Amino acid sequence: MSLDVPTALLERAEAGPVDDAEFVACVRDSLPYAWRVITEAVSDLRRDGGEFADHAVPPPSEAERGQLLRALASDAIRGGLERHFGVKLAFQNCHRVAAFTPAAVDGQAYRDFISPRGQLLNQSPELRDC
Known about the structure:
The protein is mainly α.
């Protein structure tokens, strides 16, 4: 299961659309490692400026790796996080997450990050089974 959904939020979802803030809070509470990684990348982006900031430290355990995979593999979760933080997220190798400014999405740095070449250059033997 990706998220630990409080009963009240599940009941609201069964009745109709839910508020983005409630959804993002559920993500934050359910996937704390993923939340921390993305928050740090966004904080670095805002602090340092530039087009993007990334987090490239392998997760400490399979549980944390799973959180990151669940957060970024779900269109709804990724989209909610992107709207919440006002960034575009990109993902490589189950540990490398980048936060891009919306303006950078049409730029070379973003295209390089999401390219097949970028993926190939981010490979290493210790990450083969991630």
